[in-house]
Amino acid sequence: MNVVVTRPGLDALVSGVSEIVNRRLASGETAHAVADLLRARLPGLDLLTPREREGSPDGYVSTPLHSQDDFSIVSVVWRPGQETPVHDHVAWCTFGIINGIEHETLYRDMGDHLVEIGQVANRPGEVSGFAPPGDIHKVRNSSGEVGVSIHVYGADVGRLGSSVRRVYDLPVRR
User: Fold this and answer.
1) DSSP secondary structure string, the chain?
2) What's 51-79 look like in SS3?
3) How far is it, in rounded angstroms, from Cα 82 to Cα 43?
4) What percentage of the chain exceeds 70 in pLDDT?
5) pTM of the predicted model, to two decimals?
6) What are residue 67's DSSP bridge partners?
7) Can you tell me which family this protein belongs to (predicted)?
8) Measured distance CA(151)–CA(133) in Å, rounded
């Protein structure tokens, strides 16, 4: 038997992102337009099932909620302290925080090392967007609760398997 998961707010988000993507704006403009949309239509925790909201002790969990050729919507669930490696992306990205705090550290690639160029703590209700190049970062759930965020990528992560273009294993210098 197939179980249908109802995802409140997802259809409206998919429709709105489709309209923006169909305008064929530059990557940065698309990311910012989708950020404005996500700010207005950020779903609640009921977008995910209670089981999906638990996360995993093995690491953060990314779940594609919608994928098509030109964009994807993905939920990311993080238990306290879980983090990504330092990475960048294949396309523009917009994300909104539903629960927890996503602490983001930004880097610049200097060839043989990385330089930290900033940090931001993204809290519930906050939305941001960016486009490559210049999107090298590491993200960590710095809160004491399970974090949940929605990420919209300008690529088909269902086909690609991930939005990550490159993981950086370079020393960080100040």
Assistant:
1) -PPPPP-TTHHHHHHHHHHHHTT---HHHHHHHHHHHHHHH---GGGS-TTGGG--TTS-EEEEEEEETTEEEEEEEE-TT-BPPSEEESS-EEEEEEES-EEEEEEEE-SSSEEEEEEEEE-TT-EEEE-SSS--EEEEE-SSS-EEEEEEESS-HHHHS-SEEEE----EE-
2) CHHHCCCCCCEEEEEEEECCEEEEEEEEC
3) 22
4) 97
5) 0.91
6) 72
7) Belongs to the cysteine dioxygenase family.
8) 18
For residues 70 and 118, give the distance between their C-alpha atoms in angstroms, rounded to a whole number.
29
Sign of the torsion angle spanned by Cα atoms 129, 173, 82, 126? negative
- Domains of the chain with CATH codes: 10-173 (2.60.120.10)
For 150, the token pair is 């929605």
Per-residue pLDDT tens over the stretch 18-37? 999 999 999 999 999 999 99
Of 136, 132, 173, the residue nearest 155 (C-alpha): 132
Distance, in Å, from the CA atom of 55 to the CA atom of 76, rounded to the nearest integer, reads 9
- Residue 79 tokens read as 């238990």
